[in-house]
Design goal:
The chain has one domain: Rossmann fold, CATH 3.40.50. By secondary structure, it is α/β, with parallel strands linked by helices. The chain has 8 helices and 7 strands. Strands 3-2-1-4-5-6-7 form a 7-stranded parallel beta sheet, with helices on both faces. Helix 1 crosses helix 6, helix 3 packs parallel to helix 4 and helix 4 packs parallel to helix 5. 44% of the residues lie in helices and 14% in strands. The two termini are 26 Å apart.
């Protein structure tokens, strides 16, 4: 088990959703939370909540869609804290539009936030982890990074990229014999408002996840140094479908209802 007490834990998208919940849960273990978000008011609310519980938190307003802004903000963090022990790349956005409905700018922003920021955040904070001789990089991806669905072409592609990023990063750490752990989180839809309106055809099989439960499981996965956290466990059954002929696999996914989950989507763009 990895101890979180007295560790510097940076969470992107910390002002809302599971990012905010993780900040509360991880700070309860004695960690110093370094909260990043584009929402200044949300960060101040989080700061007030944690300080009222006598917990340690530093907040930074940062638009992680901008590489240079990430690097500048990261330098401020390193100047103040020297090292980030656990980096949780949690922030994510969704458009919920078909490929022809989404604008060019919206598609680019999806990749800037959901995929490219992973590179800039890791490149900013991993050198200090290497110097210290330890660290943990957490990538909050999605079940949409394992299987695609209609009206999520940019989102799923960006999350496939996040899953591939984590896998390659893990192998690089092993190859270089670095004591830096990695965890990828692939949840089904979470009931945070980001995916409001989505439906699961068989809720007993693929339930819409509760934010509190997801945050609990992510924190436990970090503590256990789990390399993957796939939620719920039934999402793992997607992997064997890859071995089937495409038409058959698509038919099974159609029966499960995956390709219809976004039909009534009304969610907001925002964090997980």
């Amino acid at each position: 088990m990895s101890k979180l007490g007295d560790k510097n834990v940076l969470i992107t998208g910390a002002a809302s959703g599971i990012g905010r919940l993780m900040a509360h849960k991880i700070s309860a273990h004695g960690a110093h939370i370094i909260a990043w978000d584009i929402n200044a008011a949300g960060l101040e609310a989080l700061r007030s909540e944690l300080e009222a519980k006598d917990r340690k938190i530093s907040t930074y307003v940062c638009n992680i869609a901008e590489r240079e802004t990430i690097y500048a903000t990261a330098q401020q963090v390193l100047d103040s804290h020297q090292v980030v022990d656990v980096l949780i790349n949690n922030a994510g956005i969704v458009q919920g539009k078909s490929i022809l409905e989404a604008s060019d700018e919206a598609i680019i922003r999806t990749f800037d936030v959901n995929t490219l920021s992973l590179f800039w955040m890791t490149r900013a904070f991993m050198p200090a982890m290497i110097t210290k001789g330890s660290g943990h990089i957490v990538t909050v991806a999605s079940a949409g990074g394992i299987v695609g669905t209609a009206k999520l072409t940019d989102y799923c592609a960006s999350k496939f990229g996040a899953v591939g990023f984590d896998e390659s990063l893990r192998l690089e750490m092993q190859r270089q014999k670095l004591n830096i752990k990695t965890t990828v989180v692939c949840p089904f839809y979470i009931d945070t408002g980001m995916f409001a309106g989505v439906k699961s055809r068989f809720g007993w099989f693929l339930p819409i996840l509760k934010p509190e439960n997801v945050a609990d499981k992510v924190v436990k996965a970090i503590q256990r140094n789990d390399q993957r956290a796939i939620l719920p466990w039934t999402v793992k059954l997607i992997y064997p479908l890859r071995l089937l002929p495409v038409g058959l696999a698509d038919g099974i996914m159609g029966i499960i209802g995956i390709n219809r989950t976004m039909d009534d989507f009304t969610g907001r763009q925002g964090n997980h």
